[in-house]
Amino acid sequence: MIDVRELGSLQLDGLREVANIGAGHAATALSQLTHRRILLDVPQIRITRLEEAAELVGPGDEVIAAVLVRVLGDATGRTVLILPRDTAVRLTEILLGRTGVTFPESFGELERSALTEAGNILVGAHLSALSDFLGLILLNSVPGLAIDLAAAILTSSYLNFGERADYVFCLDTLFRVDEGEHPLRGHLLLIPDGGSLEVILRAIRLG
C-alpha cells in the first residue's frame, strides 16, 4: 500500500498536471454555459488526513456549499467540491443571469439546482481529464448538494457513502470570472477508496 505522505514532487506534479487539465475543461464548459469568460487553475495540491481536511477549507463554523459525487469505475472514491459563501453566490448569479442572491437565506430549489449543475460540470471535467490522461474508466454518480457548516459537511454523516479512507487530496482552486474581478476560491477534495490511489499512480507510471 502506498503511503500518500511519501509522495514525491514527481507524483504531485503529475497529479497537478491532471488537475489543471480538468480545470481547463471545466472552465471551457462553464464559459460556454454562461457566455462569460471563466478561468480556473489549481495552484496547489495538499495532502492531509480526512479528519483534518476542515482546516484546509476555512473556519468550521462557516456555512458553505458542497457538491458530493461518488466515483465509480477502474478507480473508486469520492469527490467533494467545497464552495465558500462568496464563490457559491457568484457562480449561482452567473448561471441564473441575475444578481442579489443571498446565501444560504434565498437558496431555493432553482439556486440549488444551478449550483449543483456547476459542481457537476467541475467534477465531471476533472474526472474526464483523469480518465483520458490515465487510460482508466472513471464515472461519476448523480451529484448531491449539501449546505451546512464546513465542520459538519466533512463528517461521516455526509461522507460515509463509500469505503473509509485515511487521506484526502485537497486541490485548491481559483475561479476568475471576466477580467478585473476578484478571484474566487474553492476546494476539490479527492478521496480515493482502498487501493485506488495505487491504481492511479500505476497508470501514470509513478507507482
SSE arrangement, N to C: HEEEHHEEHHEEH
- What is the level-2 CATH architecture name? 3-Layer(aba) Sandwich
Into which percentage range does the β-strand content fall?
25-35%
Helix content: 25-40%
Structure description:
It is a single chain. The protein is α+β, with helices and mostly antiparallel strands and 207 residues long. It has a single domain, classed as CheC-like (Chemotaxis protein chec, 3-Layer(aba) Sandwich), CATH 3.40.1550.10. It is 39% helix and 29% strand. The chain is built from six helices and seven strands. Strands 1, 2, 3, 4, 5, 6 and 7 form a seven-stranded antiparallel beta sheet that branches. Helix 1 crosses helix 3 and helix 2 crosses helix 3. The N and C termini lie close together (10 Å).
Which features does this protein show?
207 residues, alpha+beta, Chemotaxis protein chec, seven-stranded antiparallel β-sheet, 6 helices
